[in-house]
Design goal:
The complex is a heterodimer of chains A (184) and B (421).
Chain A lengths: L1 H16 L20 E2 L2 H7 L14 E3 H11 L1 H4 L27 H4 L4 H10 L10 H14 L8 E3 L2 H4 L8 E3 L6
Antiparallel strand pairs in A: 2-3
Helix pairs in contact in A: 3-7, 6-7
Chain B lengths: L15 E2 L1 H7 L46 E5 L7 E4 L17 E2 L13 E6 L5 E4 H5 L4 E8 L17 H5 L2 E10 H8 L7 E6 L6 E5 H6 L2 E6 L2 E2 L9 E3 L12 E7 L6 H6 L2 E2 L5 E3 L7 E6 L10 E10 L5 E7 L7 E2 L1 E2 L9 E9 L4 E9 L8 H5 L15 E4 L5 E4 L2
Parallel strand pairs in B: 5-14
Antiparallel strand pairs in B: 1-22, 2-3, 3-4, 5-6, 7-8, 8-11, 9-10, 9-14, 11-12, 11-13, 15-16, 17-18, 18-22, 19-20, 19-23, 21-22, 23-24, 24-25
The chains are: A mainly alpha (184), B mainly beta (421).
C-alpha cells in the first residue's frame, strides 16, 4: 500500500519539476472586453428614444387645444377612464384635489402628479391601451391639455405646446421629496 | 432495538423547540414501515407504480399530483388581459429558488413576443458613443450569475387593510420570488459607451406595448446592476422579460424593467408615471417620498400558514423565507406566543446577499390557540418592524414597501388565520 502511494508521489514530483506549459490552441485568456457595441446614428436613436424630462428635454415640437383634446378623449380614452376622466372602469384622471394630505388621499393626475410633462411621456409610450402609437404629437399635446383642463389646471381656451407643458404648475408639485440619495 | 428517546429543549414559550435539538434529532422521520400485504411476492411489497416500467423521457412537467401548485390571483385591469399580476405559491415551495414557471408577474401592457434576432439593446444619452448590441454580441461578454430575490414593491399591500385579510400566503405575499439570474454587468457596457461627467441617472425603457420606463441612479447601475438574459439556467421566460431585463439586486421589482430595449444616460430622473404617481410612498402629512428603491428586511412563515391547517397536535416544522434588499439575513427569530418570547430559527446553508434565505424550526403544537410570528434582522442592522410601527406616519391608503411582521393565529382546531397583533 505504501509503495503504491509512493509511486504516485514520485510521478507527481517528476511532473511538477518538468517545464510544462499549458497551451490552449490558438488563443489566450484575456481581461479585455469584446467591445462589440455598434455606433448608432442620431436618427436611429431618435426613433427609439421615448424619454421626456421634466425640463422639457425630449419633447417634440407640437401643440394641441383643450377643444381638440376633448374630442380625442371621447374617441380614445373615455371607454376606460369615463366621461370627463372619472368613474370609468380604470383609473380616475381628475378629482381628488386637496385630499392628498387629508384622511383619505385620492391620487389623480390633477391631485397628485408632480409634472405635466409626465402626461406627454406616458400617453406617447402607452396609450391608448389597445393601440399605442396611433396618436400624433399634436394629438398627445391636445389630450394633455384636456386632462389638465378637467382638473381645472388650465382654462378651456388654452393650447398646450412643448414649451407651455413645462411651465404648467401642478397643484401637488411641491409635495415630493427624494428618498434617494439617502441623507446621512 | 431500543427506542430512542429525546428530551426536547424548549427555547421559547408555547412549544418552540431549540434549533440544535431540531437538527440533531431528525424527528419527523420514521413513520410506520409498510407492512407486506395483499400483493406481496416473496414477502416484499410493491406499490402499484413499482409493478411495471414507468413512462418515457423527454419533456416532463411537475407531478400531476401537484397541479394545485401554480401562480395564484391571476388578475388584470378591467378590459385588459396583460395589465396586472400573478403570484408565487410560496406556501407550497421549499428552499430558496422559485421555479421559473412560478415566478410572480407584474405587467403593464401584456407580455410581448420578442424575436431575439431583431431585438437590440441601445445605450444612448449622455455618453461619448451611442451604441447598440445584438443578442449575439451580448453572449460574447463575460457573464455573471447570482441567486437573488425580486420583489414587487406592492407586495403584501393587502396588509394595510383595517381588518386582517383572510387570504393565503401566496395571495398576500406572493409578489416575491428568487432565481439564479445570469447576465452581463451593465457597467461594462456603459464604460464601452463612455459616460459623460453630467450623466447621473439612466432611464430604462422596455419593448412592451407600454414602453414601460423607470429612472435609476447611475450609482446603482455601475455597482451591481446586470442585463439579465438567464433565469435558473435557461433563457429568461417571456413573462420575466425575454430576451433581457434590467436586474437591480435588492431594489423594487418595478425598476427592473423587463424586455429591456433602451438605456438613456441622463442628468436626473425622468419622473416617469410609475415612479411618481404609482411607486411613491405617501406620508400622512401629504408629502410623498420618491425613489425608495431598496426593499426592506422581511420574513414570512410559509408553513404552517392559512390553508395548511394542523390536523393533530404534535411536532411540526415551521418553515419560511427571509430577505433584505440591503444585504444578507443575519438572524430570524420566531415566536409561538404572539411575540412575548422569541427563539432563533435555523437558517439553511445558502445565506446570500439580497436573496431569499430559508429558515426553519421545530414546533410542538399542544392543541391550544397559538400565534406564530417571524422577525428578520439583516447584516446592516435593519430589523423587521411590527405592523403598527410600519403604518406610523404613512397615508392610510399607501401600501408600497410593506415589510412588517406577519402573524398567523392557530386556533384549538388547528385552523390558521391571518391576524394583526
Amino acid at each position: 500500500m505504501f509503495i503504491y502511494k509512493l509511486k504516485y508521489i514520485l510521478i507527481f514530483f517528476i511532473l511538477s519539476i518538468l517545464p510544462i506549459k499549458i497551451v490552449i490552441a490558438d488563443g489566450e485568456f484575456t481581461t479585455q472586453k469584446p467591445s462589440l457595441g455598434k455606433i448608432v446614428s442620431i436618427k436611429e436613436i431618435n426613433a427609439v428614444d421615448f424619454v421626456v424630462m421634466p425640463d422639457g428635454d425630449g419633447l417634440p415640437i407640437g401643440s394641441g387645444s383643450v377643444e381638440s383634446g376633448k374630442e380625442l378623449f371621447t374617441m380614445h380614452c373615455q371607454a376606460c377612464h369615463g366621461l370627463d376622466g372619472v368613474n370609468g372602469i380604470n383609473g380616475d384622471l381628475s378629482g381628488g384635489h386637496g385630499t392628498i394630505n387629508g384622511p383619505v388621499p385620492k391620487k389623480t393626475v390633477g391631485s397628485y402628479w408632480p409634472y405635466a410633462t409626465i402626461l406627454f411621456d406616458y400617453i406617447r409610450r402607452a396609450m391608448p391601451y389597445q393601440s399605442p402609437g396611433i396618436l400624433s404629437n399634436d394629438e398627445i399635446y391636445a389630450l394633455s391639455a384636456y386632462i389638465l383642463y378637467i382638473n381645472n389646471i388650465i382654462d378651456e381656451k388654452e393650447v398646450i405646446t412643448q414649451k407651455t407643458i413645462v411651465d404648467v404648475e401642478m397643484p401637488n408639485s411641491q409635495n415630493f421629496i427624494w428618498a434617494y440619495p439617502k441623507k446621512d | 432495538m431500543k427506542k430512542k428517546k429525546f428530551n426536547f429543549t424548549f427555547s421559547a414559550d408555547n412549544g418552540l423547540v431549540d434549533r440544535r435539538c431540531f437538527l440533531k434529532s431528525g424527528f419527523g422521520v420514521g413513520a410506520g414501515m409498510m407492512v407486506a400485504g395483499a400483493n406481496a411476492s416473496e414477502g416484499k411489497y410493491r406499490d402499484d407504480w413499482m409493478r411495471k416500467p414507468g413512462s418515457g423521457m423527454g419533456e416532463s412537467g411537475p407531478s400531476i399530483h401537484e397541479s394545485h401548485i401554480k401562480r395564484s390571483n391571476v388578475a388584470s385591469q378591467p378590459g385588459t388581459l396583460g395589465s396586472g399580476a400573478s403570484r408565487t405559491p410560496l406556501q407550497f415551495l421549499d428552499g430558496i429558488i422559485t421555479p421559473s414557471r412560478l415566478h410572480f408577474e407584474r405587467h403593464h401592457s401584456g407580455i410581448p413576443d420578442i424575436n431575439p434576432q431583431s431585438h437590440r439593446l441601445f445605450i444612448h444619452g449622455l455618453v461619448d458613443r451611442s451604441l447598440s448590441f445584438s443578442m449575439n454580441d451580448l453572449q460574447r461578454y463575460q457573464h455573471v450569475s447570482r441567486i437573488q430575490f425580486l420583489e414587487c414593491s406592492g407586495n403584501s399591500g393587502a396588509m394595510i387593510a383595517p381588518n386582517a385579510p383572510q387570504r393565503d400566503v401566496s395571495q398576500i405575499h406572493g409578489l416575491v420570488s428568487c432565481s439564479e439570474w445570469g447576465g452581463i454587468p451593465l457597467n461594462i457596457l456603459l464604460d464601452e459607451a463612455g459616460i459623460k461627467p453630467e450623466g447621473k441617472w439612466i432611464v430604462a425603457s422596455g419593448a412592451d406595448a407600454a414602453v414601460m420606463s423607470r429612472s435609476v441612479p447611475l450609482e446603482k447601475i455601475m455597482d451591481d446592476a446586470i442585463i439579465a438574459t438567464h433565469q435558473n439556467g435557461e433563457p429568461i421566460r417571456p413573462s420575466n422579460g425575454y430576451p433581457m431585463r434590467l436586474f437591480l439586486p435588492g431594489w423594487e421589482g418595478n425598476a427592473c424593467v423587463k424586455w429591456l430595449k433602451t438605456i438613456k444616460v441622463t442628468s436626473g430622473p425622468s419622473m416617469t408615471k410609475d415612479e411618481t404617481s404609482k411607486y411613491s410612498d405617501l406620508r400622512d402629512d401629504g408629502i410623498a417620498e420618491l425613489f425608495t428603491f431598496p426593499m426592506g428586511v422581511k420574513s414570512i412563515i410559509t408553513s404552517p400558514s392559512p390553508g395548511l391547517d394542523l390536523l393533530e397536535r404534535g411536532i411540526y416544522q415551521i418553515s419560511g423565507i427571509a430577505w433584505s434588499g440591503s444585504g444578507k439575513i443575519k438572524q430570524v427569530e420566531l415566536s409561538a406566543d404572539g411575540g412575548k418570547t422569541w427563539a432563533k430559527a435555523e437558517l439553511d446553508s445558502h445565506v446570500l446577499s439580497k436573496s431569499l434565505t430559508r429558515f426553519r424550526s421545530a414546533w410542538k403544537w399542544n392543541g391550544t390557540q397559538s400565534s406564530l410570528m417571524s422577525r428578520a434582522i439583516d447584516d446592516q442592522g435593519n430589523i423587521q418592524p411590527n405592523r403598527e410601527h410600519w403604518l406610523k406616519g404613512r397615508a392610510i391608503n399607501t401600501f408600497y414597501h410593506y415589510n412588517a411582521i406577519q402573524s398567523w393565529s392557530v386556533n384549538s382546531k388547528g385552523k390558521i388565520n391571518n391576524v394583526y397583533l
